[in-house]
Amino acid sequence: MAEPMRVVVLVSGSGSNLQSLIDTVHEPGGDIEIVLVVSSHEGVPALDRAVRAGIATAVVGMSGRDRDERDRALADLVEAASPGLVVLAGWMSILTGEFLDRFPDRVINLHPSLLPSFPGLHAIEQALAWGVRYTGVTVHYAEEVVDGGPPILQEPVAVMYGDDAEALTARIREVEHRLVPEAVRLFAAGRVRRDPSDRRKVEIVPGEGE
Ligand code: GAR
Fold first, then answer.
1. Structural domain tally of the chain?
2. Mean pLDDT in runs of 10 for the chain (210 residues)?
3. CATH number, residue 24
4. Is the residue at 208 inside a domain?
């Protein structure tokens, strides 16, 4: 493990992925600590999960301002928490390049498909409508293009004949709840390296003894 890593998690809804981080990697004062959870909306269950875990919370909504203003306020708040990593765990609002430029190569996003298939909203319903045999989960670097940054971890999930959105979502969530903590552990161990000569390529540096 390299030095301790402070993590800020951005959420918008139920926060089951936040919960998986709280349960598996979050250790107050330890090697990985979630220091702040920011929600785009008031009153979402994700905020309750953070409060129950004793983690500081904030809400940064649009509230009558434009995206640039919202993102400046958000970036100031996030920067004040000195994060080594910012995790978008169900954050359902587009971030401007200005926000992302404040945390270069330190913002990662979670998406419920094997990107580049089915970016944007309703990825699971899109996969079902298409009839694909496999969809999956992607953890990737966030870039200004929605769901467009290079993948860090991906894992396929088989679509079963007769699946509805609820059944497929449940199996995708199980994979997400493993992949997001794994990505955070890899960052904390300094094992995620973006190739400086081809920034679409991401190397997972083998751990000791691998
Ligand atoms: C997750 O399935 C995540 O992949 C998806 O929102 C859900 C949040 O669940 N994110 C996106 O679709 C982003 N494009 P959670 O609030 O229970 O963690």
1. 1
2. 87 98 98 98 98 98 91 97 98 93 97 98 98 98 95 98 98 98 98 97 92
3. 3.40.50.170
4. no
Q: Is 13 in the pocket of ligand 1 (CB under 6 A)?
A: yes
Q: Is the distance from the beta carbon of residue 93 to the nearest atom of ligand 1 less than 6 Å?
A: no
- Predicted confidence (pLDDT) per residue in 10-36, tens digit: 999 999 999 999 999 999 999 999 999
Identify the domain containing residue 10 by its residue range. Answer: 5-193
Q: State yes or no: is 140 an active-site residue.
A: no
In a domain, 27, yes or no: yes
- Indicate which residue of 111, 122, 140, 177 is catalytic: 111
Tell me whether residue 78 is in a domain: yes
- Tell me, using a 6 A CB cutoff, whether residue 181 lines ligand 1: no
Rg (CA), the chain: 17
What's the 55 CA to ligand 1 centre distance in angstroms? 20
87 within some domain: yes
Indicate the pTM of the whole model: 0.97
What is the per-residue pLDDT for 2?
63
